[in-house]
Amino acid sequence: MLETARAWLRQDPDAETQAQLRGLINGASDGNAQALASLHDRFDTRLEFGTAGLRGEISAGSNRMNRVLVSQAAAGLAAYLLEHAASGTAPSVVIGYDGRKNSQVFATDTAAIMSGAGVRTVLLPRLLPTPVLAFAVRHLDASAGVMVTASHNPPNDNGYKVYLGGENEGAQIVSPDDKFIAAAILAVAADKLVPELPRAAYETAEEDVVRAYVDATASLAHPPRAQVNTVYTALHGVGWDTTRRVLEQAGFDLPTLVDAQIAPDAAFPTVSFPNPEEPGAMDLSYEIAREVSAELIIANDPDADRLAVAIPDAAEESGYRRLSGNEVGMILGWRAATQAARAAGDEPLTGTLACSIVSSPALRAVADAYGLDFADTLTGFKWVSRAPGLIFGYEEALGYLVNPGTVRDKDGISAAVALLSLVSDLKAEGLTLGDYLDQFSEKFGHFASGQISIRVSDLSTIALVMTRLRQTPPELIGRIRVDQIDDFRWGLGGLPPSDVLRIRLTDGSRVMVRPSGTEPKLKVYIDTHSSAGTIEERKVAATAALAELDEGMRALIA
Q1: Which Pfam families match (predicted)?
Q2: C or N terminus of the chain, fewer CB within 10 Å?
Q3: Does the annotation count 453 as an active-site position?
């Protein structure tokens, strides 16, 4: 183990991780068991490159995010692109980065190494949202894109997302490309030292690419029929500058800002987790909203590919209620369907609404009502964005794709524009977003959703729970009888294999259980529905079933 750590240290270009690793090596050499255990944790395994790319804590070792690992990933990706390039063509890559710790360093390392390998390399001009990078892959007709971000992960994490151009249309990688890239990375790690990797100058994109994204996104909105009193927070991320330009160009009044969270700050000083889904993350925005009597709160996560929305609610202590990702997804999906129907006129309506299998069945109800195709996919926008004929897609984790013609990934900025346009239209008609949600319940029935998220320190805990559910399947959840359990482990319904269980209940409710793909969590998704009685009666029935299933699942996975 000491020799492995010393070999890593010899190729580490980063002073911080060098010092960290040197201290552990010295401690382990002196017989410190804790230092040796830390080395084993860092080097016994390797941070795996998969369809989500790389993501982990910034620290020394092969099982962490650092400049050695990123350099190997860059060289491996370059080798993959060169091997798979069409005969006589040179591959290209565009690289973006957000405001997290080491994002710019990882991006510039990647750019120099990929250029040195013979790939035409373009670095975006400054720290920018992930949707701009996803847009740039298609806009610049690049073979691939790399975004250095850990999205909404804890402050000391970073990550590496890979997109492919050409027939992939700028979507995130899926299998088998992830396996080919992973193999190329391992080959680099086995055969070459990081200081020996050739490096070369690379291009830096002009601001034109950002302007093109702003133009395309602002064009999604028609002139506002009424201005909306809005509060905005970037959660210490990179969303505001681009969002501001889009809103100005689209004709919206600028929102009141949560000033303490508006500038990029890798320390994320005002939140424990920079994820708008986490308790407390939006407290400052609620405070500002109360001060200005805001009609709407919109929040981006740190790389601005997600959107959170909150509306006034007197029943809440804060005075505001954050809508779930499913609520926002179903109303944006309804908006997309009505827009498509209006555009089609007397012609047959075509197109697809898509969401992940753990998202609410509400979107399927919208598709059925409008005669649109519906696709449910595995979790992750790498799958949602690939649905044929897509006009709108979402996943419950606050990700929405409202403009598949320009971006093939979730986009929290374009989603904010679409939502503001909807709220503006509603306000012009004397209605609120809450009224629109009631209209949805009246037309399609009331859909309620909930989630249980169990964070673990030992990943084997999640595997044990999944095994127990498979070997001893429940007959009841709470007092509701189980009707059927579908196991996606070997693939199901044309979907690739995935570690997911779907539990259908006799009352029409549904429970999904899966490990998180990006964090050490077990996630349970609960969906209920009622279409009997008044809107209020529907809400009561669906909510009661939700509470019953929540309590029952917590007992099962304890």
Answers
A1: PGM_PMM_I, PGM_PMM_II, PGM_PMM_III, PGM_PMM_IV
A2: C
A3: no
Task: Give dist(CA 443, CA 439) in Å, integer.
Answer: 6
- 21 and 66 in contact (C-beta within 8 Å)? no
The kind and range of the H/E element at 250 are helix 239-250
- Do 544 and 480 form a contact (C-beta atoms < 8 A)? no
Question: Within a 13 Å sphere around the CA of 351, how many CA atoms are in the beta-carbon half?
Answer: 24
Please choose, from the candidates 113, 107, 111, 154, the residue with its C-alpha nearest in 3D space to the C-alpha of residue 130. Answer: 107
Closest CA to 394 of 414, 413, 409, 373: 409
User: What are the tens digits of pLDDT across the range 202-251?
Assistant: 999 999 999 999 999 999 999 999 999 999 999 999 999 999 999 999 99
> pLDDT tens for residues 321-369?
999 999 999 999 999 999 999 999 999 999 999 999 999 999 999 999 9
Give the sign of the dihedral formed by CA 27, CA 33, CA 38, CA 44.
Answer: positive
Rounded CA-CA distance 455/461 in Å is 10
The span from the first CA to the last CA of the chain, in angstroms, equals 36
pTM: 0.95
> Which pairing describes strands 296-300 and 230-233: parallel, antiparallel, or unpaired?
parallel
> Cα-Cα-Cα-Cα dihedral of 473, 476, 480, 482, to 10°?
30
C-alpha 488, offset from chain centre: 22
* Alpha carbon 321 to chain centroid, angstroms: 22
The span from the CA of 53 to the CA of 226, in Å, is 42
Q: Strand pairing of 203-204 and 230-233? A: unpaired
* Tokens found for residue 231: 């509060």
For the chain, domains (ranges, CATH) are: 1-44 (no CATH), 49-206 (3.40.120.10), 228-444 (3.40.120.10), 446-557 (3.30.310.50)
d(CA 322, CA 260): 20
